[in-house]
# Entry
Amino acid sequence: MPAPVVDTPALAPVRARLLTLLDELIRHDGYGSMRVDVRLLKRGQKEVIVDCGKQHRFVVDVPSAPSNPDARG
# Structure
């Protein structure tokens, strides 16, 4: 079963940038690639780095995930 989607306002710019870059890659007449790295920071924050020719960096506040004893992974 997939994990629940974290929906916080801090993620809105990250999602918007990902979708914009994906649209640009699809419209591009040639090869393209995109990579997303997520790094843990202090105090419940994560750094999201979207690399698509240029690097787009975001620091977002993410609430801790609730523990799920049924989760396997």
